[in-house]
Amino acid sequence: MRLLVTGGCGFIGANFLYAMRRNHPDWRLINLDKLTYAGNPGSLRALEAEAGDAYEFVHGDICDKDLVTSILTERGVDAIVNFAAESHVDRSIDDPAPFVTTNVLGAQNILDCARRAKVGRVVHVSTDEVYGSLGASGQFHETTPISPNSPYSASKAGADMMARAYHETYGQDVVVTRCSNNYGPYQFPEKLIPLMFTKATAGEPLPVYGDGENVRDWIFVEDHCRGVELALLKGHAGAVYNLGGASEMRNIDVVRTILRLTGQDESLIRFVADRPGHDKRYAMNFDLAARELGFAPSVTFAEGMKRTVAWYQDNTAWLDEVRSGAYRNFMDRWYKERA
Ligand code: NAD
Ligand code: TYD
Q1: Which of 244, 299, 326, 327 could form a disulfide with 304 if both were Cys (CB 3.0 to 4.6 A apart)?
Q2: pLDDT by residue (tens digit) across 183-202?
Q3: Local structure of 322: helix, strand or coil
Q4: Quick check: 112 and 36 in contact, CB under 8 A?
């Protein structure tokens, strides 16, 4: 298998590349990444050192038709897993434009180049956020109407619709996965869990939006990667698969868990201005992926959080490296406005 992974220098893409190398040492892995603020080639240093010719990094944009086409044809790519995206909801509220460019136009370019180059399968990695928000009960099913509320989720929904259209119109082999909130090693420290870890460790206030009652379903990143791998190997062309961690948590309880694991006091918690359009609750029904793919999350939230906090404690150099000037500019401005 010659597999093109896009966005492999990001959080989930990097974990996925390590997992594919472990599970399929005979595969050739090509990673196309633009290296935005969220992309860190340092996350893949160990893979690069160990894999030799079985791994190749290409620095570039998924929107670049000529580049994507040349990768697909020259390397004889069999399948693509598209992780590349702008992925942070708060940044999408700050400036939606790059989300439309990468998440919609970039995804469409990947589908189109793949169709023309006759690539066997495209797995498009999407999110539960395309479904919008739930009340106190119920779950998202694959049949739940798409109803995105943030510029991020709207852009991901646009790509999902393109994936569907390419399958229906051209008969292209496309599989869409929609997963809940990931956590684990290599996550950029602007998302809830690594952000709260860095703040707690530094003894700084932890900014909780609104009343902290918003609920997310949390999945350990290795379980998400397994779901994507199963979709690649066993998914039905044209299918959409929900993936989840069966771990619904209120934000305030996630934050308390991090304080406990870092030995810090709850007096560090600060309730700050809510995120505009903040989705109240996400919950996933992934019976279809269980039935058709044999997917099941294997790591509990308690176990995954212990592993995640231990990883960040052991990898302070990685954290220092990703907290560049560009990272600090956005973070300073965003949280000053909410205090
Ligand atoms: P991330 O922000 O950590 O990484 C995104 C990667 O994509 C970065 O390496 C970045 O450099 C690269 N990239 C951005 N624009 C690009 C472009 N135009 N061309 C090439 N590369 C580009 O994101 P993540 O958390 O790893 O998420 C990966 C995918 O999974 C995204 O599609 C996201 O929507 C989806 N997803 C994420 C979560 C989550 O909880 N993080 C949950 C469900 C689905
Ligand atoms: P986030 O990690 O940004 O993921 P998403 O918005 O894609 O679910 O946020 C997870 C939850 O944590 C979400 O309900 C918003 C909340 N949150 C805070 O309360 N404070 C923060 O500083 C951040 C970044 C998020």
Answers
A1: 299
A2: 999 999 999 999 999 999 99
A3: helix
A4: no
Give per-residue pLDDT as tens, 225-256: 999 999 999 999 999 999 999 999 999 999 99
The pLDDT of residue 325 is above 80? no
**pTM for this structure?**
0.98
For the question of residue 95 being annotated catalytic, the response is: no
pLDDT score at 239? 98
Q: How confident is the model at residue 107 (pLDDT cuts 50, 70, 90)?
A: very high
Classify the C-alpha dihedral 269-333-61-150 as positive or negative.
Answer: positive
- What angle, rounded to 10 degrees, do the helices at 192-202 and 251-261 form? 40
Q: Which atom of ligand 1 is nearest to the CA of 82?
A: 32
For ligand 1, atom 10, name the residue with the nearest CA. Answer: 39
Ligand 1 probe mutation, 5, 6, 11, 122, most atoms within 8 A of CB: 11
pLDDT at 322 over 90: no
Ligand 1 closest atom vs CA 37:
11
With a Cβ cut-off of 6 Å, ligand 1 is lined by 6-7, 9-13, 32-36, 38-39, 61-63, 83-87, 102, 106, 125, 127, 156, 179, 181-182, 188
Beta-sheet strands, E only, within the chain: 2-6, 28-33, 55-59, 79-82, 121-127, 174-179, 181-183, 206-209, 215-220, 240-243, 248-250, 269-272
Ligand that comes closest to the CA of residue 331: 2
